[in-house]
């Protein structure tokens, strides 16, 4: 039976971890995904004190809710593929610290953003540098038994599971896997989402659930804040594919309602849309 989680950025930003975990349980979720994005505030989490870490672990135990994964998007700002040597060094430091933090918090999955570079021009060299950085990161993660799971992105560099599998061939490690986002998979017209899932099912650690608007010749698409049911994702079709293939891993509802006037209502709408679809295809949630 799969478990359902919520992204940290769906909840109010200025609350403690104790409050965040309590809300997660109150709203009926099994787990939460922590965000370490490119802001100084969230990158600072990589330097949490032992007392802070112990407090979070104690709160998880008390509430019966775990932090299942870390969404490590700080590499947008400090990418492995950068032309800037200092940024590449920082990318390695960020990943090493995230691995150590995950280990101390009892987290086994770190979601890696599938960007070679984000704010710079892409090249064959940026791809090579990304792979070099990932090789080092996977080696470090394997020492702690932690999986680096690359998210399928809103970016051409890693917008399909096929592209992940090309990287996986270069790094054939059980500690490198894939974290598909059904919204991102569906937004790119060249993808057949169900076929993509079929190709990568053996490597999938988790699934992001969100809706998107498609990339077209006249539109860059929209990859966040699209109300469920108003985008291009065929949830019933893709969920049915996952169920047929025996996927029983976690599902993470990805939302950015942390500044919404009524975040609980927004989350309830999402659950009311998604849970019946999961049940319809056969999942007991």
Structure commentary:
The chain has an eight-stranded parallel β-sheet with strand order 6-5-4-3-2-1-10-7. A two-stranded antiparallel ribbon has the order 8-9. α4 runs parallel beside α5 and α9 crosses α10. The radius of gyration is 18 Å and the shape is globular. The termini are close together. It contains ten helices and ten strands. The protein is α/β, with parallel strands linked by helices and 285 residues long.
Break the fold down into its secondary structure elements and pairings.
Layout: E1 4-7, H1 17-26, E2 31-36, H2 40-43, H3 50-63, E3 66-72, H4 85-105, E4 109-113, H5 124-144, E5 147-151, H6 161-170, E6 176-179, H7 182-187, H8 193-200, E7 206-209, E8 211-213, E9 222-226, H9 235-244, E10 250-253, H10 263-281
Helix pairs in contact: 1-3, 4-5, 8-9, 9-10
Molecular shape: globular
| Rounded average pLDDT | 97
Question: What structural class do the secondary elements suggest?
Answer: alpha/beta
What fraction, in percent, of the residue positions are helical?
Answer: 40-55%
Count of helix runs: 10
**Computed Rg:** 18 Å
pLDDT under 50 segments (min length 5)? none
Terminal-residue CA separation? 7 Å
Spatial sequence of strands, sheet with the most strands:
6-5-4-3-2-1-10-7
């Amino acid at each position: 039976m799969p478990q359902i989680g919520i992204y940290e950025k769906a909840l109010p930003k200025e609350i403690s971890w104790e409050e965040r975990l309590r809300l997660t349980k109150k709203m009926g979720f099994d787990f939460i995904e922590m965000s370490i994005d490119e802001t100084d505030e969230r990158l600072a989490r990589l330097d949490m004190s032992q007392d802070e870490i112990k407090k979070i672990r104690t709160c998880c135990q008390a509430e019966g809710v775990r932090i299942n994964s870390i969404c490590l998007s700080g590499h947008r700002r400090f990418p492995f593929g950068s032309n800037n040597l200092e940024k590449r060094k920082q990318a390695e430091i960020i990943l090493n610290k995230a691995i150590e933090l995950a280990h101390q918090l009892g987290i086994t999955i770190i979601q890696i953003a599938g960007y070679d570079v984000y704010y710079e021009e892409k090249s064959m060299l940026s791809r090579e540098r990304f792979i070099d950085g990932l090789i080092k990161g996977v080696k470090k993660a394997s020492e702690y038994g932690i999986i680096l799971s690359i998210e399928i992105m809103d970016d051409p560099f890693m917008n399909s599971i096929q592209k992940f599998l090309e990287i996986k061939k270069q790094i054939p490690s059980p500690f490198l896997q894939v974290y598909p986002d059904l919204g991102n998979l569906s937004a790119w017209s060249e993808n057949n989402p169900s076929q993509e899932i079929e190709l990568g099912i053996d490597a999938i650690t988790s699934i992001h659930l969100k809706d998107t608007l498609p990339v077209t010749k006249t539109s860059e698409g929209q990859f966040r804040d699209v109300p469920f049911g108003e985008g291009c994702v065929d949830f019933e079709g893709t969920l049915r594919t996952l169920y047929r293939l025996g996927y029983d891993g976690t599902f993470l509802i990805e939302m950015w309602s942390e500044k919404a006037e009524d975040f609980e209502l927004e989350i309830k709408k999402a659950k009311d849309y998604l849970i019946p679809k999961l049940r319809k295809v056969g999942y007991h949630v």
